[in-house]
Design a protein that fits this description.
The complex is a heterodimer.
Chain A (H helix, E strand, L loop, with lengths): L14 H8 L5 H4 L3 E5 L3 H13 L2 E5 L17 E2 L11 H11 L6 H21 L24 E2 L5 H18 L3 E4 L2 E9 L2 E9 L5 E5 L2 E4 L20 H8 L4 E2 L4 E7 L22 E5 L16 E2 L1 H5 L9 H13 L11 E4 L1 H7 L1 H19 L8 E10 L2 E2 L12 E3 L17 H23 L10 H20 L5 H15 L6 H21 L11 H25 L23 H4 L1 E6 L8 E6 L14
Parallel strand pairs in A: 1-2, 1-9, 2-5, 9-17
Antiparallel strand pairs in A: 3-4, 6-7, 7-8, 10-16, 10-18, 11-15, 12-13, 12-14, 14-15, 18-19
Helix pairs in contact in A: 3-6, 3-12, 4-5, 5-12, 10-11, 14-15, 14-16, 15-16
Chain B lengths: L2 E7 L8 E7 L8 H15 L21 E2 L2 E2 L21 E5 L8 E3 L2 E2 L2 H8 L21 H11 L6 H5 L6 H12 L8 H14 L10 H5 L7 H16 L12
Parallel strand pairs in B: 1-5
Antiparallel strand pairs in B: 1-2, 3-4, 3-5, 6-7
Helix pairs in contact in B: 2-6, 3-5, 5-6, 5-8, 6-8
Classes of the chains: A alpha+beta, B alpha+beta.
Chain lengths: 637, 258
């Protein structure tokens, strides 16, 4: 395997323009001759499917939910960044680019990030034209707020439901194309394998989740916008159905996996309350604009928060990072929360929590203003915890939220398999080792609306794509493989439920490959995952049959893939013996406990190549070059 | 905490269903209703009984996947809350709960508590959008929208498409859902060019799917987890009536209102 990033080079400001001009085009009359598969219907997949339909391609779009509107992008709360500089506060495309490269701790490609910052302004225009009801000022202009990792106010939002509104915009555009007959939608359909013929991605194998039918779909190109894999930890802020199966099966068909260990831990989630817990609920990072984070100065202080006087509180982020304060990037905020809890100063019953206090903001701005900004988040918090955050400080703790890693793609968003494109969270590009808040929506829509329509056309116009029939041996073999695997899962009939295995895997991952990682811990995790995986294939209990709605069978297939991915994540974390962004190796830190990068040895993206079951995968390295933003120790002090 | 569940079990869309009684002592007041079903399902699987199928995904009240009737109320007794965020502290120890799927002919049951809501997607496909292909629209701030209008549009746009409004309505009407989208787009300048055709097409699609008519009872608003007001139905009816009057009929066929 040879990695060719296809970075255009030359002046970064014009790189994307030049690429678009050099790309071959598909004549409008020829577009309808091409079949394109899009898997996933979130911000990336949904916007791509709609846009490709508008352009005239024959699109088939697949999602496992009952409707494309349910994709997990819907749950994004805080906002979307764009370098509009509407606030006249010094923002620019270059500054958004700079902040994103720095925020990603210099582990992303400059050229990709610059293009993302350029596209950000078009996204807002597009979304407004679709009728997305962004927050507005009284004069009728768009409102902005600030977000972690930035000193300008560039985040556009629709209350605490920005992801929902942007997704509905893309979903509505998609439904318009479905109505026009340009896109055929396959809801409740799960991709289980990628079909590769003559080295090119030519289709997928799916399971109809209502009838159990295993089907094959042939196309000229396949686009995966299937989201992230945070659910490998069992507890995360991801939706319960979010899974790695599509990208994992593509990996096993030859697509390199980039930076699997780069995961993001979000600092502001509601703490875990019991063993039955099925997921973690995020409280938008935007709360850090007005909330102050603190813990008691004294260890083991069990007084209730209002009984702790001001001088016995430690506003540790404001103390350690005076210039960014509570708005430090997510990885820094999360690690500091863990550190104060490890010192025994955590709050709440489990002592795994810190306060996020709105007392000062409420006395400054009044309760009404706070309600207007965060009302729905406060309500959600109260519903879950039974505490009123207008009166009592919220308790928060970090949780797995996003995966920066994903399938390796070149500048054109094409994986190492020609004809297989990967967009949104499912790919590894743009965010490096840490994603800044309000950047996920931006990337998903940039990929779907404004990048894939160009780069896909170039591939179709320049690749030689032969006709393939459904009876080709590769198609039949892929289908048979899935049928066998399904039979095998149903035939084990052991003693343990799928969830019990998933929980155990999640605990290993959180303990050893979570907020802090060490070589001995990761080595231990790899061997524990391997033995747990063997036990799974001997002792899992999946009731029912394939030819029906069978949620245990769906989960079992996904968890089987999570085992393999979890092992690869640990392997990647072990190989990367440096700390960067969300990846914190205890062996590599500054004397005051900040993450310490090792640019001499690790200024590269890791791309793993599958070598067969029970074989060690091969590591390839794509060196990263920085011509514009020069790597420095990130400082938010 | 102990709870008794009576749950609708139905193997396939065409099979007959029935209520089945289950009991679990492993409940906890801090659990959500869906976590309670997770715990119950783990117990059932261990006993060799097929688990209860229910739809769910984000579990934070925004994706709209989950929803069923609890003791006859869509999403249960707590206002403005989906079942994924409804905690057991709102129930008493030993309480008996009756869980049933949404009941509407336009929402056929697929299995147990899971129904098919594809009719909602088809209503949106009929006109719930602004026809602007991805490209280069004008600068976002070239369009000034007064804040109160934008806020009201957002109130309507908050709909999560869960279907509780249909389940609660004695006529199984989808007017709150359809009206919410018509109102969201109709309050914004971007939505004006297609405002009439949107109302015509969406309302006709809704009627064609087999949803009933609105009888102004207001059950939909009472159960809506996002608190969407029935004012949106008035706006839908006004847009539909206005558009019907000025429409140049192709066949001359009269059209029903909602």
């Amino acid at each position: 395997m040879k990695l060719d990033s296809k970075i255009p080079g030359g002046p970064i400001e014009t790189a994307w323009d030049r690429t678009r001009f050099e790309n071959k085009l598909v004549n409008p009359a020829n577009k309808r001759k091409y079949e394109v598969i899009v898997v996933g219907s979130g911000l990336a997949g949904g916007s791509a499917a709609a846009t490709l339909g508008e352009l005239g391609y024959n699109v088939k779009c697949f999602c496992f939910q009952d409707s494309p509107r349910r994709a997990h992008s819907i749950a994004a709360q805080g906002g979307i960044n764009a370098a509009k500089n509407y606030q006249n506060d010094g923002d620019s495309i270059y500054r958004l680019f700079y902040d994103t490269v720095k925020g990603g701790d210099f582990r992303a490609r400059e050229y990709n990030v610059y293009r993302l910052a350029q596209n950000s302004v078009n996204i807002i225009d597009q979304a407004v034209a679709q009728g997305v009801p962004f927050a507005r000022e009284y004069g009728g202009t768009l409102a902005n707020r600030s977000f972690g990792g930035a000193q300008v106010s560039r985040t556009f939002y629709a209350r605490g439901q920005t992801g929902q509104q942007l997704l509905l915009g893309a979903y509505q555009a998609l439904e318009r194309q479905i109505d026009a007959g340009r896109v055929k939608m396959f809801p409740r359909t799960e991709m289980l394998d990628l079909i590769v013929i003559d080295g090119k991605a030519r289709g997928i194998v799916t399971r109809n989740m209502v009838t159990g039918a295993i089907e094959t779909h042939i196309a000229d190109a396949v686009i995966l916008g299937t989201g992230g894999y945070g659910n490998v930890y069992y507890l995360s802020t991801n939706a319960k159905g979010s899974n790695c199966t599509a990208i994992w099966r593509a990996y096993k068909r030859g697509a390199a996996f980039g930076n699997p260990c780069f995961t993001q831990i979000h600092p502001t989630c509601i703490p875990v309350s019991g063993d039955y817990q099925s997921k973690l609920t995020l409280m938008s990072e935007s709360l850090r604009n007005d909330g102050r984070i603190w813990v008691p100065l004294k260890k083991g202080d069990k007084r209730s928060p209002e009984q702790i006087p001001e001088n016995e509180r430690d506003y540790y982020l404001e103390r350690r990072y005076p210039s960014f304060g509570n708005l430090v990037p997510r990885d820094v905020a999360s690690r500091n929360a863990k550190a104060v809890c490890d010192e025994g100063r955590g709050v709440g019953e489990t002592a795994l929590g810190v306060y996020l206090d709105f007392g000062a903001a409420i006395s400054r701005l009044g309760e009404d203003k706070i309600r207007e900004r965060y009302g729905n988040l406060f309500e959600m918090y109260e519903r879950i915890t039974d505490e009123n955050p207008y009166k009592v400080p919220m308790r928060i703790y970090p949780a797995i939220h996003y995966t920066m890693g994903g399938l390796w793609v070149d500048y054109n968003l094409q994986s190492t398999i020609p004809g297989l494109f990967v967009i949104g969270e499912a790919n590894f590009s743009d965010h490096g080792a840490n994603r800044l808040g309000a950047s996920a929506l931006m990337q998903g829509l940039s990929d779907g609306y404004f990048i894939i329509p160009y780069t896909l056309g170039n591939y179709l116009a320049s690749a030689k794509i032969d006709k393939v029939s459904d009876s080709a041996p590769e198609v039949q073999a892929a289908r048979a493989g899935i049928q066998d695997r399904t039979k095998q899962l149903l035939g084990i009939n052991g003693k343990r439920t799928v969830d019990s295995f998933h929980r155990e895997l999640g605990k290993i991952m959180w303990d050893e490959c979570g907020m802090a990682r060490t070589a001995p811990g990761l080595e231990k995790a790899i061997s524990r995952i391997q033995s747990l995986r063997q036990e799974f294939w001997k002792d899992v209990k999946v009731l029912g049959k394939n030819e029906e709605i069978n949620q245990s069978l769906e989960k079992a297939g996904r968890v089987a893939d999570f085992f393999e991915l979890g092992e690869l994540m640990c392997r990647d974390a072990l190989t990367r013996n440096e700390s960067c962004g969300g990846h914190f190796r205890e062996e590599s830190q500054t004397p005051d406990g900040e993450a310490m990068r090792d640019d001499a040895n690790f200024s590269h993206a890791s791309a793993w190549e599958y070598k067969g079951d029970n074989q060690t995968p091969e590591l390839h390295k794509e060196p990263l070059e920085f011509h514009y933003v020069h790597p420095s120790q990130r400082s938010y002090k | 905490m102990r709870l008794v569940f009576h749950i609708w079990r139905q193997a396939t869309a065409s099979a007959p269903g029935k209520m089945v009684r289950y009991e679990s002592a492993n409940m906890n007041p801090d659990m959500s209703m869906l976590e309670a079903l997770d715990v119950l399902n783990e117990e059932l699987i261990t006993q060799g009984t097929e688990p209860v199928v229910f739809e769910h995904d984000c579990r934070e009240g925004i994706c709209g996947s989950c929803g069923f009737m609890i003791n006859g109320i869509a999403h249960g007794p707590l206002a403005r809350t989906t079942v994924c965020q409804l905690t057991l502290r709102h129930f008493k120890d030993g309480e008996e709960l009756y869980l049933e799927p949404w009941r509407a002919s336009a929402f056929p049951v697929l299995k147990d508590l899971m129904v098919d809501r594809a009719s909602f997607d088809r209503i949106i496909a009929a006109g719930g959008y602004c026809s602007v292909p991805a490209g280069s629209p004008q600068d976002a701030n070239a369009l000034l929208i007064p804040k109160p209008e934008a806020d009201r549009a957002m109130d309507a746009a908050a709909c999560i498409g869960c279907g509780a409004c249909v389940a609660a309505c004695p006529n199984a009407s989808a007017s709150l859902f359809t009206g919410a989208k018509i109102t969201h787009l109709g309050l914004m300048p971007q939505g004006q060019p297609e405002r009439e055709i949107r109302a015509l097409r969406m309302v006709r699609q809704m009627n064609g799917e087999g949803f009933g008519h609105c009888g102004n009872i207001g059950e939909c608003e009472a159960v809506c987890p996002k608190g969407i007001s029935i004012e949106v139905i008035a706006r839908m009816n006004r847009d539909f009536a206005g558009a019907s009057i000025t429409e140049r009929p192709k066949s001359g066929a009269a059209e029903d209102g909602a």
